[in-house]
Amino acid sequence: MSDDPIISALARLEAGQATMSDRLARLEQGQTQLRGDLMERMDRLQDAITDIHADIAVNFGAVDQARKVNDNTREDMRGLNDLVARMMTLLLRLQTEVAELKGRDK
């Protein structure tokens, strides 16, 4: 190297620029890697959210089905109660008629 201070300063400046250029290249490479990692993670999170939504939809469907079964059971019980009430009325009437017939036979 030359003993000239300007040349020495320019050489140091050039070396510093080369170092900065290397650091910038590594930074860009790191950003690219980070971007890829973030996209991959977001995809996994989106898949998890999609699975949760699917589970919720299935659960809502099961709840709706259970509600329909419950409503149908109530309707069945009402129908059965009506039938039992009619049968009780007939049984009471028959019981009365049998009692009257037994009373006549005595």
Termini Cα gap: 147 Å
Main pleated-sheet profile: none
Q: Shape, please?
A: rod-shaped
The overall pLDDT average reads 91
Helix % is over 70%
Number of helices: 1
Poorly predicted parts: none
Structural class: mainly alpha
Provide a descriptive summary of the structure in words.
- The mean pLDDT is 91.
- It is rod-shaped and about 150 Å long.
- The protein is built from one helix and no strands.
- The protein has 106 residues and is mainly alpha-helical.
- The chain has one helix at 5-105.
Keywords for this entry:
106 residues; mainly alpha; 95% helix; rod-shaped
Quick overview:
This protein is mainly α and 106 residues long. The protein contains 1 helix and no strands.
Set down the secondary structure blueprint.
Layout: H1 5-105
